[in-house]
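Summary for the lay section of the report: proteins are chains of building blocks that fold into shapes. Here we show the chain for SusC/RagA family TonB-linked outer membrane protein and then a coded description of the shape we predicted for it.
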Amino acid sequence: MGTDFERYTLRLNSGLTAGRFKLSESLQLAHALTDLPSGAPFQDAIRLLPTIPVYDPTESTGSGFGYGSPAANTFGTNPVASQLIRDESQYNNRLQGSVNAEYAFFDFLSYKLNLGVETLDYVDRNSRKYGRITQNQPQNEYQSTYQEQRGDNSFLIVENILDFNKQFGDHGINVILGYSEQRGKNTFSRGLNRGYGTGPSYNFVLSAGTTSPEVTGTDSEYSKRSYFTQAVYDYKNRYLVTGSFRRDGSSRFDPDNRYGNFGAASLGWRISEEDFLKESAPYISNLKARVSYGVNGNDAIGEYRYQGVINQNANYVFNGNVITVGSIQTTIPSQGIKWESRFTTNYGIDLGLFEDRLTMSADYYTSRTEDALVNPLLPIYLGNAGTRPFVNIGDIENKGFELQLGYQDNRSAFTYGVTGNLTTVKNEVLRLSQEGQSIPSGVTRTEVGHPVGAFFLIPFDGVFQTQEEVTRHVNADGRVIQPYAAPGDARYRDTNGDGQINDSDRIFYDTSIPKIQYGLGANAGFKGIDFSLLFQGSGGNELFNVARATMDRTDDPANFRADFTPWRPDAPSSTTPRALQGGGTTANLREAAASNARGSSRFLEDGSYLRLKNISIGYTIPESLTGKVKGVSNVRIYVTGQNVLTFTDYSGPDPEIVNGNFFERGVDFSSFPNLRTFTGGIQLGF
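The coded shape description reads as follows.
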């Protein structure tokens, strides 16, 4: 039981030069095996009641596991049973390679050909044995199942670049012209069968099931064509001007919107090359002011999204018994979608002191995404059975500051350095595709004037301590806002003043996205020994803890946190209401129990953290020893650790959450935490 990950990697790099011709190549082969967690073990572990045994030899279906019952009423899944009865594994082989050829017609004019390829073949296997692991789970002979998914993905890119680079006295000019083609092809097949018996032994292959296998598959292709150019001018390596333009065409959009035009420009002034600064401040080795503006495009939406899918074999019964063959649309097309464009403006300054041992870089940026491509959830009544359609929902802006500081000293056998970086960000939705549009998603809402996926919750305002507080909690008209409440019940703010608490009282909490992100790194080396570490962190954001919202409610049977301390008359609490079970004997008790369990701002937690992300130590064997082995240029032995330490006040498994829902990035469903990993290896150079 548990997860596992194994990866074997081989890298090869080589190159040669013959007169005006240069050739280089790189190749990486990787083989990976992964055992995945089944279900949602972190959620299940906190839901299952402590009175339920993990193993139960008296269990009626023969699974041998404990789960909920009328005596211990919960519908949580036994997390141990889920891992032992279900098995999910992945197997893949990946090849990444590139070949780069260059021929110099003259010292100032060359042609470059870049070829890149990536292939991936994979097999995913999911199996389930017979047996009940959740209360009231249906049981039949077909409960044991096996599913196998196979696929082959390939990607190829070809770039042709003509490069002109020449110095005319104090004037330098560099111009490139390029053309590229990209091709991708993905094939996918899936087989599913049922009825593998009741155990204890199973033969999980598709042909061994007792039903007819369900087989499906897809085959998709895409392509991108690009024309691009860039021109760079510099005067005495002091004044720098750059301009670029590209035209990209993607098969992922319909023919009317297939092409997009994107460009960029920048200005730079290397002040440290001015004579007045060289004479007055010789310790300044680099001082550069710069400004840039540009636009990039995004077409990462998948294939054929602009086309709908129609099932041409849909039967329907008319007139009682007449079967008529018809067609139905099963996937709604992404109509009228076009390239997403990101416009970025940047003002920056670079500073280097004492031969660049001490460096600083500061930037102010604004990044505005126009026609953002997003696939929001659709109402069920639209009948979309396939992938959700994309829409250009509107404009989103990010702006903030970036600061990097560093010190590196390599003047002696002992080398050392320290780096630090800090980024601030303010995210805001500027426009949505429809006037006054609102995009709800669980406990979040996306509207103009707020960040994407801002929390939208009823504000929790503490816990009533006395009956007098309940009767004094009134609106402007003197109406008691929570007449059903009693001491120990949750108090909420009546934000709209109508004298009652409901969804109309929800307000925005613009804290779903970290306001600052930072990092701190250090390195040192001495006579072949090298050491490095990296801390990273973020702050200014909150997380909605779904696990705590589940455990801290008492109206529904569930597990509770070890430090769960609800309000009691002899032990009052201002943060946790009294424990009330659902289905109370009076209407007030029933309403109070539901009110105390409400998903409000009570379950927002500080998501700030500091993490030792990486630490590494290595030793490079002296050349006097490796030189004795023919063909070996260097050997390095190393040990690294990832996610070694985390400092946070967040009570969930991991504050660095990953939520794939674009509109719920601050909602923590107890996703699988970042793994603490230790790796050892040997690097060989030939």
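Put simply, here is one thing we learned. Helices lie at 41-47, 79-85, 275-280, 467-472, 546-551, 587-596, 623-626.
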